[in-house]
Design a protein that fits this description.
The structure holds 2 protein chains of 2 kinds.
Chain A: E1 2-5, H1 9-28, E2 37-42, E3 45-47, E4 50-51, E5 65-72, H2 75-79, E6 85-91, H3 93-102, H4 108-111, H5 115-136, E7 144-145, E8 149-152, E9 159-160, E10 167-175, E11 178-187, E12 190-193
Antiparallel strand pairs in A: 1-12, 2-10, 3-4, 4-9, 5-6, 5-7, 5-8, 6-11, 10-11
Helix pairs in contact in A: 1-5
Chain B: E1 3-7, H1 11-23, E2 30-33, H2 36-46, E3 50-55, H3 64-73, E4 82-86, H4 91-100, E5 106-109, H5 114-121
Parallel strand pairs in B: 1-2, 1-3, 3-4, 4-5
Classes of the chains: A alpha+beta, B alpha/beta.
């Protein structure tokens, strides 16, 4: 019988870490220099149901990139703009360019205007897709996602998130001894077949 | 030699795919589109010469599933081999893709290795 359940924190954590590791290894042929750092935080609201998403709160320098994708329980909720969660990626611009080079991109592909934001969007897109694939394979219902949006420093209006769930998991990922990017994950209760 | 149409809203991802195609030794001309609507425009003028479509799922304006559904319904392009290259990798998504385009020739989930892409596209280029 399907039951409405929170995706267990350890399932969320393992799915996210496995997703990120596989993407960095496959696309960029890189390995993390240390295990990811995880924290559980209370959501800070910009206004009701709009989560603050500021790179400086994560310790990133001016010019950092912030990409986000909304998570939805049904396709119709995308048009109704009623997300049940979100994945937000905060990334250092210099190290994103380094990751682009590791992915085999060079010259103008890395340097041209908008390329690093595009790469950050695609990274967020792949991480979200892989996270969903792994959670669904654990027996949870299908989760739908939007296309990514990327801004500099912060998402000015905050990330919309229709839930009273008050916590999110923050993941810090380290390459070359540095916190190259961080991810905030928040997901409300979804159905699981049991 | 037939052309390859790469449909993905990420210019960076299109570059990576094109790079893999080139490194694999395939010299086909490559056409690019950033979403389903652009891909329809490209196909409209190249439908006789495109021999393979590589298509992402999540794209703005018209997504990949809407695009391949449209392609499957138009006799002039319905037989062009289509391979999905996407992050959407759940069983339900695979079923949906094959149901809208029964003649789908492959389904590659991102992230993919260059070998995975080469093996799937080799018969069509």
């Amino acid at each position: 019988m399907p039951q409405l359940k929170l995706v267990l924190p350890n399932v969320q954590e393992q799915a996210m870490i496995a997703a990120v590791k596989s993407i960095v290894a496959t696309t960029c042929q890189e390995r993390f220099s240390q295990e990811p750092v995880l924290k559980r935080n209370h959501i800070k609201w910009n206004e009701k149901y709009r989560m603050l998403a500021r790179a400086k709160d994560k310790g990133f320098a001016e010019g950092a990139l912030v990409s986000w994708i909304g998570l939805f329980l049904a396709e119709r909720q995308i048009t109704q703009n009623q997300p049940c969660g979100a994945i937000i990626l905060y990334a250092d611009e210099y190290y994103m360019r380094k990751l682009m080079s590791a992915a085999g991109l060079s010259g103008e592909d890395v340097l041209k205007q908008g390329a690093v934001a595009d790469f950050c969007s695609e990274l967020c897109n792949m991480i979200t897709g892989q996270f969903i694939n792994r959670v669904v394979s654990e027996g949870y219902q299908e989760i739908f996602m939007t296309s990514p949006d990327t801004q500099i420093n912060e998402i000015p209006e905050g990330v919309k998130f229709n839930s009273d769930y008050a916590e999110y998991i923050e993941f810090g990922f380290f390459l070359w001894g540095k916190n190259v990017f961080s991810i905030d994950l928040t997901l409300s209760a979804i159905f699981k077949n049991e | 030699m037939k052309q390859i149409l790469v449909v993905d809203d990420s210019g960076v991802q299109r570059k990576i795919i094109i790079q893999i195609i080139r490194q694999a030794g395939f010299n086909n001309e490559i056409l690019e589109a950033g979403n389903g609507e652009e891909a329809i425009q490209v196909l409209g003028s190249h439908f006789k010469t495109v021999g393979l479509i590589l298509c992402d799922w999540h794209m703005p304006e018209m997504n990949g599933i809407e695009f391949i559904e449209g392609v499957a319904k138009v006799p002039a392009v319905a037989n062009i081999p289509v391979v999905m290259v996407t992050t959407a990798g759940t069983e339900e998504k695979l079923k949906q893709a094959y149901s809208v385009h029964p003649n789908l020739k492959g389904y590659i989930v991102k992230p993919f290795t260059s070998d995975q892409l080469k093996v799937v596209i080799a018969p069509f280029v």
